[in-house]
Write a structure and sequence with these properties.
PMP22/EMP/MP20/Claudin, 5 helices, 169 residues, Epithelial membrane protein 2, 65% helix
């Protein structure tokens, strides 16, 4: 049982780490001479020049939804871990970690929403009014975007594990 518990804890911490990296790192859309994420867009010609995504950006509301969903998924994943630790010592034997599972599945839903919005609106986002965004259309999805989808799978699996898991001796 200790091996299973250690695996679940490591799996959950890995999920949280993937969410942190996907949310913070600047590699959702990359190409020759630029890289972009949900926070800023950078060009790398001679020096790195970054432009924050703010309300002057033509698709700011779309990016705000992606930003909010990624932050919320990361926060929910961390909350689920702390609740799991509390339930580990408070639940009676044979009870399930339902609250932990619900919060982890909500985290899963949030990261899926963020990655789905970004996937759907990526072409609109990078074909905006400014000249740089036309160049950005020639890129490809970066590793942070892929990590967001991997984090989706990890949080979904761990949410199901908590739902199925019963506390045993």
């Amino acid at each position: 049982m200790l091996v299973l518990l250690a695996f679940i804890i490591i799996f959950h911490i890995t999920s949280a780490a993937l969410l942190f990296i996907a949310t913070i790192d600047n590699a959702w859309w990359v190409g020759d001479g630029f890289f972009a994420d949900v926070w800023k867009i950078c060009t790398t010609e001679n020096i790195t020049n970054c432009t924050d995504i703010d309300d002057s950006f033509s698709h700011y509301s779309t990016m705000q939804a992606v930003q909010a969903s990624m932050i919320l998924s990361t926060i929910l994943c961390c909350i689920a871990f702390f609740i799991f630790l509390l339930q580990l010592f408070r639940l009676k034997q044979g009870e399930r970690f339902v609250l932990t599972s619900i919060i982890q599945l909500m985290s899963c839903l949030c990261v899926m929403i963020a990655a789905s919005i970004y996937t759907d609106r990526r072409q609109d986002i990078h074909h905006g009014n400014m000249g740089f965004y036309l160049q950005a259309a020639e890129g490809s999805y970066g590793y942070s975007f892929i990590l967001a989808w991997v984090a989706f799978a990890f949080t979904f699996i761990s949410g199901l594990m908590y739902l199925i898991l019963r506390k045993r001796k």
